[in-house]
Amino acid sequence: MLHEADLVLAMERPHLEHMLQIAPEARGKIFLLGKWQADRAVPDPYRQDEAAFEAAYQMIAEGVAAWASRIHR
């Protein structure tokens, strides 16, 4: 899947690094979702309270909006 994708967005740096270990030739199309927010990671809210999920959702929404504004044609 990494080879077929044009853009791959990871939520956390360990995810990004793992994908690059699997497919180092995909470097250049794998980035953090929060790249345009100073390479901000989106922490996993699993087993946390509702506020953690809301914060993660907000970070995801901001990251998607930032990417969309840069790749929209």
Largest sheet: 2 strands, parallel
What is the level-2 CATH architecture name?
3-Layer(aba) Sandwich
Class of secondary structure makeup: mainly alpha
Q: Please state how the strands of the largest beta sheet are arranged side by side.
A: 1-2
Count of spatially separate domains = 1
Q: What Rg, in angstroms, do the CA atoms define?
A: 13 Å
- CATH top level is Alpha Beta
Instruction: Give the uncertain stretches in residue-range form.
Output: none
- What is the fourth-level CATH superfamily? Response regulator
- Quaternary: single chain
How many beta-strand runs?
A: 2
CATH topology tier name: Rossmann fold
Give the H and E element order.
EHEH
Detailed description of the structure:
This protein is mainly α and 73 residues long. The chain is 44% helix and 8% strand. It has two helices and two strands. The chain has helices at residues 13-22, 50-71, and strands at residues 8-10, 30-32. A two-stranded parallel sheet has the order 1-2. α1 links the parallel β1 (8-10) and β2 (30-32). It is globular, with a radius of gyration of 13 Å.
Defining key terms:
mainly alpha, Rossmann fold, 2 helices, 44% helix, globular
Short description:
The chain is mainly alpha-helical. It has helices at 13-22, 50-71, and strands at 8-10, 30-32. It has a two-stranded parallel ribbon.
What's the helix and strand layout?
Layout lengths: L7 E3 L2 H10 L7 E3 L17 H22 L2
Parallel strand pairs: 1-2
